[in-house]
Amino acid sequence: MSADVESTTPAGRRPAARSAPRAEVPPLVVDGVTKTYRGRRREQVVAVDDVSLTIAPGAAVSLVGASGSGKSTIAKLITGLERPTSGSVRFGDVQVGKLSRGGLREYHHRVQMVFQDPYGALNPLHTVEYTLARPCVNFLGMSARDAKQRVDELLETVGLTPPEQFAPKLPHQLSGGQRQRVVIARALACEPSLIVADEPVSMLDVSLRAGVLTLLANLRLERGLSLLYITHDLLSARVVSDDILVLHHGRIVERGVTKDVLQHPQDDYTVQLINAIANPYAAPGSTTPSAGATKDH
Amino acid sequence: MTLLSARDLNVAYLPARGQRIWSVRDVDLDLAEGEFVGLVGESGCGKSTLGYALTRMLRPPARLESGRITFDGTDIATLSGEELRRQRRNGFALVLQSGMNALNPVRNVSHHFGDIMKAHAREGESSTASDLSERGAELLGKVELEPDVLERYPHELSGGMRQRVAIALALALEPRLIVFDEPTTALDVIVQRAVMQTIKDLQRQQKFTAVLISHDLGVVLEATQRVLVMYAGRIVEDQPSADLLTGPHHPYTEALLGCYADPRAEVVELNGIPGSPPDLSRPLEGCSYNPRCPLAEQVCLEVDPPLLPLGRGRAACHVRTREDARGAVTSNASAGPDPSEGGSHVR
C-alpha cells in the first residue's frame, strides 16, 4: 500500500458514505482459472485447476480444503496478488489479472484481505491507531483528524472498547484475538465490498474463535459485505457461510449450501474432511469411520 | 502404579526487569503407569510450561521455583548434569510443538538421531554409522515413515512428516513418559487425525505414559483417558475424559466445551469465552477465573478455591464444591487425593 497519497485534494475530505447500500456492487466472478507454478525441478505444479466460482454481493461463501489444496492461491488470485495462468477473475468490468499497479490499488479499495497470522500481519512498530488510520487517509482521502475519529469507530465496530484504550497500543501489547480484530478493522477501514479472509481464526485459541467468527458474520449482515471465508475448519465454515466449496488438489470437488453439504456430503474427500474433525461430542468410543487411515505423505 | 507424581510445583519466568510471571502455581498431579492424560487450557495458561517442568526441560528465564517431582521413586526436580541425563534414558521425553522448529534445518534426519544416541550412549558404548542408521530406520518405522527419510533434510519433509520425525526422536531413548506439546496444532485436519492415530497406536503398543498438551479439547477428549484443565497456572479440573464431556464441574471447563459443536447439527451454536485470562505477573485475588465466571459469588472474589475431590476426580470451584456437598450422598471416597493436599487455602 503506498503511503504517499496524503489527501491530494483538500476537498478529498469526504465523510465517506458509510453503510449506505452500494447498488453498483458487482459480483466477483472467477471463470475457469488455472494457476501453475514452476517447480524446483522446472516441472509444472498445478496449484489451481480450472476453478470457477461467483460471489454475489452480500453473499458469504466458504472455501474449504486441506493444506496444499490451493485455497490460498485462489485468495491471491482474487485479491490480485497473483495472476492466473489461464481463465479470468472479474469484478464488474475490472479484469483483476490484468490490473496495473495503480489499478490494483484502486481495486484494493473494494476488495480487502484478512490474513491468517495476526502476529505477522501487523507492523510491530506502529500503533493500532496508525495502522487503522493509514487506509482511511490513503483510500478515503481523510484528513488526519477525520481519520482519528474513524479509527475510534472502527475499534468500536470490532469490539475493542473503549477505543482510547486500544488506539495507542502496539501489537505486542494485544492478545492474539485482539490483534485479529485489529486486522479485521484495517480491512474494513476503506469500506470494501468484498473481504477475503484466509484462515482468520486458525491461529487463535478455540475460546476466542467464536468471537471473531461472530464479528465477521455480523459485519457481513450489517454492512452488506460479501465474504470469502477460507478455512480447513468445517465448524467455522458452517457458522460463517451460506454456501461452501470444497477444494481438493486445486479442483472444486463439491459445492452447495453449507448445511446440506455437511449433512449429506457427496464427494469422498468431503466425507474425509468431515470425519477428520476432532469433535468431543462424537464420543471417544463411537468409532470414527476409517478416514483416519489417510496418510499424510 | 504411579509413575510420576508432582507436588506443589511453582514455575516462574524471570524477566530481565519487571515482575516475575507465575506461570505454574501450586500444581499437584499424579500420572499412573501407562495412562494417557490430556492437559488443556488457553494460550498462556501454563500448560506447556508445566509439560517442560515435568520433563525437566525448563530453560531460563523460566525456573522451577519450588516443588517435588518424583519419577519412579527418584526426585528429579533437583537433579542436574550427568545424573539428569542418565535419568532421561528410559525416563521422560518431550515432543516439541511444531516439529518444524524442533529440527535443525541444516542437518539431515539421521544426524538428529545420531545426536541423541551419542549424547546418551552408555559408558564405553560406541555405535557405528550402520548401527545408527539401522536404529534410525527402526524408529522411523514406528511412526510410519520410510527409512529413506533418514537422508532427508527438514525442508524436504511435509509438516506431518516432520512431526512424525519429532515423535520418532522422542522414542529413541525408550522413555516411560512422553509429553507431547501441541503435536498437531500446526497441521491441517486430515494430517492431524493421521498423526494423532499414530500417537494413540504407539501409546497402546509401547505402553508408555503419555501427556498430551493441547488447546483443542476436541482432540484431547478423543485420545485420552483423563483430562487436566488448566487456568491461569493452576489445575482447575481433573476428571476422566468421559465424565468431563457429560458433566463438567468447573464453569471454565463448561465454557471450553461450549466452544465446540457438531457442524452437521440442525442448529449450530458456537460460544466463546468472553474476557481474557488474568495477568500472572500481578497478585490475584480470589479465584483466578472470577472475572469471566457466570457463577461468581462473594467468596470467589476473596478466596482462591482449593482443588478438591469432586465427582470421580477433582475440581477447584467454591460454588460447585458446595452444591456437591449439599447434594449429599456423592461418593467422595471413590477417587482423588487427600483434600488437604488440594491447594493453598482451605475455607
- Trace the largest sheet of chain A across and list its strands: 6-7-8-3-9-10
Strand line-up across the major sheet of chain B:
6-7-8-3-9-10-12-11
Describe the biggest sheet of chain A?
Answer: 6 strands, mixed
Main beta sheet strand tally, sense and closure of chain B: 8 strands, mixed
Mean pLDDT of chain B: 86
How many helical stretches of chain A?
Answer: 10
Instruction: Report low-confidence residues of chain A grouped into runs of 5 or more.
Output: 1-21, 283-297
C-alpha geometry of chain B: globular
Total strand count of chain A, please? 10
Order of helices and strands of chain B: EEEHEEHEHHHHEHEHEEHHHEEH
Q: Largest interface, with Cβ-Cβ < 8 Å?
A: A-B, 45 and 46 residues
**SS-derived structural category of chain A:** alpha/beta
What is the count of DSSP helices of chain B, taking H or I runs of 4+ residues? 12
Query: How far apart lie the N and C ends of chain B?
Result: 32 Å
Radius of gyration of chain A: 20 Å
The overall strand count of chain B is 12
Q: Classify the helix fraction of chain A into a percent range.
A: 25-40%
The topology string of helices and strands of chain A comes to EEEHEEHEHHHHEHEHEEHH
Structural class determined from secondary elements of chain B: alpha/beta
